[in-house]
Amino acid sequence: MSSKLKNISLIGLGMIAGATAMIQFDAIAQKNATAPLPLEELRQMADVFGLIKSDYVEQVDDKKLLTEAISGMVASLDPHSAYLDKKAYKELREGTMGKFVGLGIEVGMEDGYVKVISPIEDSPAYRAGIKAGDLITRLDSTPVKGLTLDEAVKKMRGEPNTKITLTIARKEEDKPLILTITRQEIRVQSVKSKVIEPGYAWLRVTQFQEPTVDDMAKKLAAIYAQEPNLKGLVLDLRNDPGGVLPGAIGVSAAFLPKDSVVVSTNGQLPSSKQSFYAKREYYASNPLNDPLSRLPDALKKVPMVVLVNSGSASASEIVAGALQDYKRAIIMGTQTFGKGSVQSVIALPPDKNTAVKLTTARYYTPNGRSIQARGIVPDIMVDEYADGDGLNGLRLREADLTKHLSNDKEKSAEVKAQAIDEKDEERLIQLEKKRKPLEFGSSEDFQLSQALNHLKGMPVQVSKAKPEIRDENSKDDTPVKDDRKDNKAPPEKIEKK
Questions:
Q1: Fewer Cβ atoms within 10 A, N terminus or C terminus of the chain?
Q2: pTM here?
């Protein structure tokens, strides 16, 4: 793969919609140190601190130095751990509720510029005409080159109804585009649905937020009100970057047998060694109300296809993995991102307005599979378009990220983005320019049409490309046929953690 594509990295929840995260919020943990503090190294750190204070060219604020030291220490661990200052912590909490103030774009870095990965539907950026692939070269009068991604994002954030002028470089345009955009509160619609045709429905989860389970229950109730004899359901998790853990458990619980194991976790702390079940107490925001209790029993048995791609990460991989292990649904699409770790957000004293987002556990499917740096291998591989997978196969995966955690179950299981030379990359980019933007759930959605074909027992156009790693239960590279009759995973496998 070219270095250009390797430099694209998605960032966290908030104005940016492309996080790959499974988040749980923890109270402050007052823990005793398990080992003596390294006094020599701490003295060295104090010496460096004193040297900066006495010898640096100008005065540096104590708090700034210490905050940057904490930030660097946490960031050195893995791609998903981070120190959250007051503003970042507030934005993260708001993001889990599905709202934030900003422009509404998912961004990365490329050649020193901010690259637009995708605008959020109906956001200020979307309405202004910003497109995937645009390079942002200036933010107001400030050149982007030389800024870190975090610095650029902070400049794009701001108060509601304030304006920012973006200078955009677009490959098909000879001159830069100057766009002035008004920041607004963005409300991301977590769940979308519609009856596609008589007997068949589409349910899309774009991101796992705190309201997701309640929103999904309402959408499913509306589907059954319109189609009481539903013949097939497509659960669309493509480009779903993850989110909060209870959302993933609740979505899984809607389709699995009661009290089933959905996911298990394992880390250093005793509290990280847990199993999470399809029970109300694991997903309901209100302990006295179960949003799934009013859904029809038929939902547990309706034939299902789950659509995934390389943008499906973390919480969406939990759902796909659980439904796959219980043979409850056929997983279709392309191999997923491969983020199999849990981030705990821990507020810091004294004011609890700052926090650390710390990787505290790996997670495992009900059959004990680790998704970390591997992802979910679909039962049926289907490309994004009839003529191939487009740029989907070139996206970064977890295994491409610097300092990513290894897969503790299979050391050789890591799956990276497809290697490709510059000429093929340019050919794919030119091909993508000729396509209309793909709207998931539309009549032009090729993978959705193949999912419907499968539900109807019609032929499916499978991908010519083989998955990089086959599921351990597959004997060859032939896509798995839908001969699954029951929806119970083997009890002996459920106990493997």
A1: C
A2: 0.79
